[in-house]
Specification:
Elements (H helix, E strand, L loop, with lengths): L10 H33 L2 H6 L2 H30 L3 H36 L4 H16 L1 H16 L4 H24 L3 H25 L16 H33 L3 H37 L3 H35 L5 H14 L6 H13 L4 H22 L6 H5 L1 H19 L2 H9 L4
Helix pairs in contact: 1-7, 1-8, 1-10, 3-4, 3-5, 3-6, 3-9, 3-10, 4-5, 4-6, 5-8, 6-8, 7-8, 9-14, 10-11, 10-12, 10-13, 11-12, 11-13, 13-16, 14-16
């Protein structure tokens, strides 16, 4: 098998070489919904802009996020077996992961298509955007299988050190999405329906490309349709790591649903600003997520290879690189926020509300580095339960308590938003303490039978 640089060479250089394709890939993945938002915001109106973000985005993240979180378990298992050169188990994990993607996609369709309108109404989605929102989200869930095949399949490739092919696939799919957005919305006047169809078709393209890449792996690892099965033993290994991550994603989304419900109460201008802001600050989140994926992959393979010194060097390097990058991006956002919002809308009130969001949330972005990287590193050695508990308590439950008990005392958008930076700071502190003094590494070594 071809040797990658995860197990050898300059750690900073190799992390950046692995990170950059993931970052660019995530960037182009963001273009799916960002292109939708830009086009409907400029050619349809702020109601349509609010519909393709806001409540719909929160529900999508809730349902899709669980399976994407679950796929992190597959990535860790594959990376550990690949790092230890266990070809048979690596092959089994690959085929089980794709089976999970197909089964999960079918389940999302069965739940998402009929029940999304009920979810949107329960969140208090403004009446002037409800019809748009229902149309968009139902079309989106029609492509759930393709979405999960791409996300889980690209996770499989990255677990084995290939972060470039997922990037190429997303570039192609994003270009397809933008072209179809323009054709369906600008020329055919299909509005929100058009951007929904464009998104699904582009996801079909990315899923086909990732399947082709998996079939082109070395013979002993190549994807074979007849081997795509849910194998009990491997499912247990994947679920042990992936389910806590999936539950964490659900809790994130549930807390965001509660916050989104409170934001909906402030009206369409605020929802539109929140939608635009979500597309803008997604650049930072995708950066942190990409460093987190890098940390997980480097830690997983080096842990599997019993190269513990390099494993810990990888964690330190990811933290340093991510902090520097987050400070640069935060500075750019705080200086050029108005120009960034104008990409989505020229409405002055929407931009004014968006400026409040930037002022409150952006200064604390750097603290999320420790949450993303340290939890990713701990998942890499197989310790996912306690990091999940820390995240759920420090971010999800804290925000819910804030919205239920603090917000009513002074019911303003600013008070609702403060739940974000405060929760980041508290949770980052908890992760630093657990990383320094917890038994996450020792416990994982004992479980694997490794000497440490």
């Amino acid at each position: 098998m071809k040797q990658n640089n995860i197990l050898q060479g300059n750690i900073y250089k190799n992390i950046m070489m692995f990170f950059m394709p993931i970052w660019f890939g995530t960037f182009f993945q963001q273009l799916y919904n960002t292109a939708d938002a830009v086009i409907v915001g400029n050619f349809v109106g702020k109601e349509a802009l609010a519909a393709v973000g806001g409540s719909t985005a929160t529900i999508i993240n809730l349902m899709v996020g669980f399976f994407v979180g679950l796929s992190s378990g597959a990535s860790v298992v594959i990376a550990q077996y690949f790092g230890s050169h266990n070809i048979e188990k690596t092959n089994e994990a690959i085929h089980t992961s794709i089976a999970i993607a197909i089964a999960g996609g079918l389940l999302l369709m069965l739940i998402g298509i009929p029940f999304s309108p009920m979810f949107l109404e329960a969140m208090g989605t403004p009446s002037d955007i409800l019809t748009y929102s229902v149309t968009y989200i139902r079309i989106y869930f029609c492509g759930a299988i393709f979405n999960l095949i791409y996300n889980i399949g690209s996770g499989v490739l990255r677990a084995m050190g290939d972060s470039k092919n997922p990037l190429y696939f997303l570039i192609i799919a994003s270009i397809v999405n933008i072209i179809l957005d323009i054709i369906f919305v600008v020329f055919f006047n299909m509005g929100v329906m058009g951007v929904g169809i464009a998104t699904v078709l582009s996801q079909v393209v990315s899923s086909i490309l990732v399947i082709i890449a998996l079939k082109k792996l070395p013979y002993e690892l190549s994807l074979e349709y007849s081997k795509i099965k849910l194998k009990n033993g491997m499912i247990s290994e994947i679920f042990e790591i992936g389910i806590p991550s999936g539950l964490q994603s659900i809790m994130f989304s549930l807390s965001n649903i509660i916050i989104m419900s409170s934001i909906n109460a402030f009206g369409t201008d605020t929802v539109a600003a929140w939608t635009a802001y979500g597309k803008i600050d997604a650049i930072l989140w995708m950066t942190m997520s990409s460093f987190g994926i890098s940390a997980t992959t480097f830690v997983s393979q080096n842990f599997g290879a019993k190269n513990f010194k390099r494993m810990k060097q990888s964690i330190k390097a990811c933290n340093i690189l991510a902090i520097v990058t987050s400070i640069i991006l935060t500075t750019i956002l705080m200086i050029y926020y108005k120009q960034l919002f104008q990409v989505f809308t020229k409405d002055e009130e929407v931009i004014r509300v968006g400026a409040e969001m930037v002022k409150i949330m952006a200064p604390a972005y750097f603290t999320f580095v420790f949450i993303e990287n340290l939890s990713g590193a701990m998942r890499g050695v197989g310790d996912s339960v306690i990091p999940t508990i820390i995240t759920i308590m420090g971010i999800c439950i804290f925000r819910v308590v804030w919205i239920i008990f603090v917000l009513p005392l002074h019911n303003t958008l600013q008070v609702a938003l403060y739940s974000y930076p405060i929760s980041w700071v508290a949770t980052a502190g908890a992760f630093l303490v657990y990383y320094k003094f917890g038994s996450w590494f020792k416990r994982s070594c004992v479980k694997k039978g490794y000497e440490f």
